[in-house]
């Protein structure tokens, strides 16, 4: 693996001293690091795949436009369970996306404005997975939550549609 440390904005660390496998070189990379694959080979004697990679700079690679588009679609703010759920949904991992959206709904108050957005996300995921009835159930739940928040005076009426 080739790492040009002066090009990078994403940190990485040599974690050999903390490795569970003495004698192995281990490097930990920050989530979001981008690698360019140089070669992929299967070792004939040990049947282990050997991958040659180069760590890329955030600004100097061919996927920059793709990543910018993904950030725009997924949201470029704080990365959390909702962002992870949206990413999984774009990868057609609908069961996992649903799992993370539901986990986040369980952490929110009934009056949190993010709750109805999450129910909308769950509706989209269900519809993408082909379960249109479940998608409608989630969307109806989003409307109910918005109405409850409106009636409790926790949301201005103009934001409800």
The figure for the number of domains is 2
Our estimate of the beta-strand percent is: 5-15%
Helix content: 40-55%
**Radius of gyration over all CA atoms, rounded:** 22 Å
Structural class: alpha+beta
Provide the low-confidence segments as ranges.
none
Task: Return the average pLDDT rounded to an integer.
Answer: 81
User: What's the total helix number?
Assistant: 5
Main sheet properties:
2 strands, antiparallel
The CATH topology assignment of the largest domain is: Serine Threonine Protein Phosphatase 5, Tetratricopeptide repeat
- Do you know the CATH architecture of the largest domain? Alpha Horseshoe
Quick one: how many beta strands?
A: 4
Q: Which strand order do you get reading across the main beta sheet?
A: 1-2
> What is the CATH domain class of the largest domain?
Mainly Alpha
What's the overall geometry? elongated
CATH superfamily grouping of the largest domain = Tetratricopeptide repeat domain
> What is the CA–CA distance across the termini?
53 Å
Listing every helix as H and every strand as E from the N terminus to the C terminus, the arrangement reads EEEEHHHHH
Give descriptors for this structure.
2 domains, 161 residues, 5 helices, two-stranded antiparallel sheet, 4 strands, single chain, alpha+beta, Serine Threonine Protein Phosphatase 5, Tetratricopeptide repeat
């Amino acid at each position: 693996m080739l790492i040009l440390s002066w090009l990078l904005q994403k940190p990485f660390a040599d974690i050999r001293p903390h490795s569970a496998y003495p004698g192995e070189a281990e490097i930990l990379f920050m989530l979001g690091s981008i690698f360019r694959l140089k070669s992929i080979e299967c070792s004939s004697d040990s049947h282990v795949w050997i991958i040659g990679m180069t760590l890329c700079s955030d600004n100097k690679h061919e996927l920059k436009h793709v990543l910018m588009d993904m950030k725009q679609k997924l949201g470029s703010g704080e990365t959390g369970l909702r962002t992870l759920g949206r990413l999984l949904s774009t990868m057609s991992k609908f069961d996992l996306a649903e799992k993370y959206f539901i986990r986040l709904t369980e952490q929110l108050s009934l009056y949190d404005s993010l709750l109805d957005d999450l129910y909308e996300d769950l509706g989209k995921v269900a519809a993408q997975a082909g379960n249109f009835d479940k998608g409608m159930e989630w969307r109806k739940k989003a409307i109910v939550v918005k109405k409850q928040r409106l009636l409790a005076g926790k949301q201005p009426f103009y934001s409800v549609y």
